[in-house]
Design brief:
single chain, alpha+beta, Alpha-Beta Plaits, about 20% strand
Length: about 160
């Protein structure tokens, strides 16, 4: 797959949209001193190339009473049960992320709960899924880094050094 070339204007547009996906093109255009039509064309180009995939919304789960976060490493009795277990995990709404992994765990997932008691119930539900031998749970004390722009800036810097 060919690497797509973007310039500093594209990067600044992405910066603003990562910060707030609902930023109007007219506001971006005003800040960048370009036309709203130019912003529109560039965003559409990035969408067509697959660099931009939809838009996202950040929900503050703490304010909704779901401040407890835990990560669960899942050990399976057979790797052939991976898809089956993932389908069961999808039915537990508190499992917000799941990855098939190499190394120690077969599956690594993130849960959100209201408190430790609620988390315990979720973990017990996960443990009951056929094919899971055992789990290891790590409680998140604090999310210290959640930077959506830092990697993108590094990628742009690498691309500029290649040119």
């Amino acid at each position: 797959m060919a690497k797509i070339k973007l310039d500093k204007i594209d990067q600044r547009i992405l910066d603003m949209l990562i910060e707030n996906a609902r930023t109007p093109f007219t506001e971006i255009a005003k800040k960048l001193r370009i036309s709203a039509g130019t912003v529109h064309v560039r965003v559409r180009k990035m969408e067509k190339s697959g660099i931009i995939k939809g838009a996202s919304l950040t929900v503050d789960y703490d304010k909704l009473g779901y401040s407890f976060i835990a990560y669960i490493g899942i050990f399976l009795d057979k790797t052939s049960k991976t898809r089956f277990v993932l389908e069961r995990l999808k039915k537990i709404p508190y499992v917000t992320v799941a990855h098939i992994t190499t190394g120690k765990y077969n599956i690594f997932c993130k849960i959100r709960a209201q408190n430790t008691e609620h988390a315990k119930d979720i973990i017990f539900n996960i443990d009951d899924i056929d094919g899971i031998v055992r789990t290891e749970t790590m409680i998140s004390l604090e999310e210290s880094i959640n930077d959506k722009k830092r990697l993108m800036h590094h990628i742009f810097q690498d691309a500029m050094e290649e040119d």
